[in-house]
Write a structure and sequence with these properties.
By secondary structure, the chain is an alpha+beta fold. The chain is built from 5 helices and 8 strands; from the N terminus they run αββαααββββββα.
């Protein structure tokens, strides 16, 4: 029984338990966003009110990562529910005026099905849906396919987790060069 539990854990973890790390560029406001859904390990009382608001929004959804209490519960969830698991994403950026900006939002999906962020949030991807496009490098680029007119970026770039040597996101590299040209400075 113990071996079965570990097997299930390692089969489900890569698809549903790993954190996602993205970057995107806001050329209008000259912000280079770093976005992830890495779980926070601090007490809720130490989290900013914006994080709490995103967490509460996530927990009001039918499927929320933050309400799952065991791998068994995740295993029993229908596949459609697993692809609609909402979690809190953090977005941080350094502004050209040396101000640090941090925002939080509730989004669902994963790299294999795409990502959708819930509407009416103060978050760079709010209301937008992204799907993977054919990428030139090993790492995937996602294009905005719905909700793009709200000011959401046209693309988000998957950056991997502890990239292995040679893993590149070619579209990200091109966008980064354009960002430096438009906004100045270096990244």
């Amino acid at each position: 029984m113990r071996r079965l539990a570990w097997l299930i854990f390692f089969l489900i973890l890569p698809a549903y338990g790993a954190s996602d790390f993205y970057e995107t560029f806001d050329f209008k406001n000259c912000l280079h966003w770093y976005i992830d859904n890495e779980p926070h390990g601090v007490e809720l009382s130490k989290e900013p009110k914006e994080y709490i608001a995103a967490l509460e929004l996530a927990n009001r959804q039918p499927y929320s990562w933050h309400k799952i209490e065991s791998w068994y519960e995740l295993e029993k969830m229908p596949e459609t529910g697993k692809n609609k698991l909402v979690s809190v994403y953090s977005a941080s950026a350094g502004h050209s005026k040396n101000n640090y900006v941090q925002k939080f939002g509730a989004c669902y999906g994963n790299l294999s099905v795409g990502i959708t962020c819930l509407p009416k949030q103060n978050f760079p991807l709010t209301g937008a849906t992204y799907r993977a496009i054919k990428s030139k490098g090993i790492l995937t680029t996602l294009a905005c396919v719905a909700g793009c007119k709200t000011g959401a970026p046209a693309y988000i770039y998957y950056m991997g987790y502890e990239n292995m040597e040679g893993e590149r996101n070619i579209e990200h590299e091109t966008a980064k060069k354009r960002f430096i040209k438009v906004c100045g400075g270096s990244l």
